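Checklist before submission:
- one chain only
- standard amino acids only
- sequence pasted in full

Submission:
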Amino acid sequence: MSTNTIIILVAFVVYMGMMILIGALNSKQSNNEDYFLGGRGLGSWTAALSAQASDMSGWLLMGLPGAIYVAGTGEVWIAIGLLIGTILNWFLVARRLRKYTIVANNSLTIPSFFENRFHDKRGILKIVSSIIVIVFFAVYTASAFASGAKLFANVFGTGADDKTAYMIGLIVAGVVILVYTLLGGFKAVCYTDFIQGLLMLVAILAVPIIAYIGIGGDLPGALASKGVSDPQGFVSLMKDGEGNPISFVSIISNLGWALGYFGMPHILVRFMAIKSDKEVKKSRIIAIIWVILSLGAASFLGLVARGFLSEDLVASGKSEVVFIKTIQQIFSGNFVLVFIGGVFLCGILAAIMSTADSQLLVTASAVSEDMYKGAINKKASEKSALNVGRIAVVAVAIIAFVIALDPNSSVMGLVSDAWAGFGAAFGPIILLSLFWKRFNLPGAVAGMVTGFATVILWDYIPFGGQTLYKTTGLYSLVLGFALALVIAVIVTLITKKPSKEIEEEFDKVNTVEI
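Returned file contents:
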């Protein structure tokens, strides 16, 4: 192992040790509300940065820059959609969801909120939504594990093709995330996400600026020197990497990522945990600024790296490691620079860990609170329910590990699938639950099942040799969200209106100050 590699390894070990220490320091929880929601005591900065850090994942530093590195600014429509979704989520959903989950029998999870919102005594919504959480978070967590493995393989091995380094990275990332999630619960996850959110922001802001200086500020010239045939088209929002016009379907699909925010349990649970309305208002400003800076910088990195890197990642099919390669090319030459590069590489690790831990914790709450304590053993003690939740964390991590075993796993593809599943199944139900008093249980069940089934049918079931997504190019989230919304409204209107108690709870959310 070279001296430079050892220096970077030291930076990684120190960073991961800090995360485990935070988990240990937050290892005392008196009940499930402490473990799964941190006692609803998040301040504005912690809530904002943990929500956005858990949102962006390795996708922000690997998937998005890689996509833009290959196809140019035309891929920025995804970032625009995510920014729109973030703003709408914080302004429309955050404050009202926090209040409604308190009014609705102090709901600790999204599935339990659905049950309490509709007074679902048979637990239909809770079970269905818990199953959806488990299925799509296994896929989502796999994307984080794959990101971690690719990071280790490229830093400590010879690349993603180095199966031994990839496997070691997969194991290390999984074990560290598991340890501090199991130890500390929600508070540990939020505090580590706060630190990781800051580190991600510093890394993604600094690296593209340094690279831009490295090409002398002449992006078109640098692109041309690296073989880009149409540099002006490459930086156009309306063209792809080959200079061809971007289709309307592609733009709608990419903007459609905005719809996913309304159904993301690991983001929504942050809203539920904020300690006051006043903190919500502060959090939304911090979160939106963080997203504008991080998405803008990640997009800029993809463009600059195409003209900066000496290695052609398009030809090698390794575009998702563009951030890693840029850091390695910039920070070389002496021990100090290498160590700084190692710290910035920890920014990628931060992005990966901040999402995976959140997803594992939400999965634990779904299994523990909603399936085990809510349906299987309603008399279960707090301790036994917590233990079941911890077992669920390990089980889902193992499933995610298996999914991520393929070194050719696409981080962007895995995130896209999970994002569509949650957005289509939960997004319309969350919005209608919060803002439509007439919305009822049959409508919620019909909408949720429709959204879930549409994504599965569109993305996974081949027709004539290929999936409907491959045939049409339309993102399943756009179609699934629209169908789920329409079906939910129709079924609600043709079935019995909610009880007086449910309507009174809805009205209480409009007037109560919590």
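Reviewer check: Residues 35-511 form a domain with the Sodium/glucose cotransporter fold (CATH 1.20.1730.10).
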